[in-house]
Write a structure and sequence with these properties.
2 copies of one chain form a homodimer. By secondary structure, the first copy, chain A, is an alpha/beta fold. A 7-stranded parallel beta sheet of chain A has the order 3-2-1-6-4-7-5. In chain A, β1, α1 and β2 form a beta-alpha-beta unit. β5 of chain A pairs antiparallel with β8 of chain B.
């Protein structure tokens, strides 16, 4: 049995219920392809380019998209940022540097939560990413409703364009994802041991440890038993593992008995 | 005034209070460099390699690290996964595929929280990443205490090695980061308007709108005033913007008055 899995989510063609990612004057096709891959990893499909420096389509982009062609095939190219965001209701600008502009500033996590709410209310959000070398112009930032700033090591905060897209997409996907944050992944054909099986194993072990004199002196026995039980308890054993452990106990005894013979 | 900033965190040389990132048989130096960059973005410094396929050091790694040489200079190379994790107390294996092994499975977010706790208790955590083409061997996964599985689009979940390092590092950094999730970034040399300034502007505007007959008929005036005030209220204006707005009101009146002359 595998860990609980979320049912498949919005397909890549469902573009109206996911935020648009808008790359402004991206310089390298390679980064566009990697951004497309990062988008599809996070079930995002609406990629827009403003005046890509190497033109469009771009072979390098196809190569680095690692199979995310569905995103590249639906790319729309615009001649201005204003045209690229015309149909959107809420626009975020990703910036690393401080700008001399008064704007709300959000972490990717807060922006992701907000974008889910905006879509639930019938709005259309999008995120602007600047060119690799110098980011967004102040004119582009001004067009945005808010700024997204990724909290990173302040002494080394520059990230690659595709990595910025990945982090925004990742937070978007996590905010809509209901996979439990933790759990137990089980091997196939087994199940967690029940308490009767576990206690049966404890008693088997303690019987043999009494027999070989390990649980002495008697006044220390209760604490020793508690510690041993606790250790195995913590291991969260499966039914198969309990049987294996009982086999180990029996096997060790047989070896010991043979030596004594 | 910029948005609140966190004080600089643990430097890259403080290796004992951050998790180790262990790349098992990485195939491309390029990916090692990008992983180093992603680590330093997130204030991680302890990079270990198990039998890198192209040997070590590697020029491509230096090139793609984009200045994260401090991480590359401190890389340690090992001949086995067991040797690479010998000094660690808790090891996580990143896997995309389901394995036929019973293990706790955590999201990157849950693992990050757990790793912070482990370090606070004096433990040393580390995360194993498999080779680009096929991930970790089951033998390597078996050495780990738990599995980290990134919740991603189930129909397109394969991510690049450096991107996997980025997502784990990002969650690690976010878990220890106290930057507010949202706030207002202010332009320099200004401050939020106080209510006297804002209400002064409202009254100025309403006086002029009364004068030009905009706020009619009288029975609709209260609702119109409320809606206009609310719109400006929502804008969260600075003291400078209030002055600018009052200038706009006066300017428009002067233009109107000139036309009437």
């Amino acid at each position: 049995m595998a860990a609980p899995r979320r049912p498949p989510k919005s397909s890549a063609s469902a573009e109206t219920d996911t935020p648009a990612m808008i790359l402004v004057e991206p310089q390298l096709g390679e980064n566009i392809g990697m951004a497309a891959r990062a988008m599809l990893n996070n079930a995002l499909a609406d990629l827009r380019l403003v005046s890509p420096v190497q033109g469009w389509p771009n072979d390098q982009a196809t190569k680095t998209s690692s199979g995310a062609e569905v995103v590249l095939e639906n790319v729309r190219v615009f001649h201005s940022t204003a045209a690229a965001i015309a149909d959107l209701s809420h626009v975020y600008a990703t910036t690393a540097r401080d700008r001399d502009l008064t704007k709300p500033v959000l972490s990717p996590r807060a922006a992701a939560a907000e974008m889910h709410k905006i879509i639930a209310q019938g709005g259309r959000p999008g995120v602007l990413f600047g060119r690799e070398a110098w980011g967004l112009d102040n004119d582009d930032v001004t067009l945005a409703d808010a700024v997204i700033s990724v909290p990173l090591n302040p002494t080394f905060s520059s990230i690659n364009l595709a990595q910025a897209v990945l982090l925004i997409g990742y937070e978007w996907y996590q905010a809509g994802d209901d996979t439990p944050q933790s759990g137990m992944r089980l091997a196939k054909k087994t199940r967690p041991a029940n308490k009767a099986e576990l206690i049966g194993m404890f008693e088997h072990l303690e019987r043999e440890l009494d027999a070989c004199g390990f649980l002495r002196p008697p006044e220390k026995r209760p604490a020793m038993v508690r510690n041993i039980r606790n250790m195995f308890q913590r291991a969260g054993m499966t039914e198969q593992e309990v049987r294996t452990m009982r086999g180990i106990i029996s096997g060790l005894i047989r070896r010991h008995q043979r030596k004594q013979d």
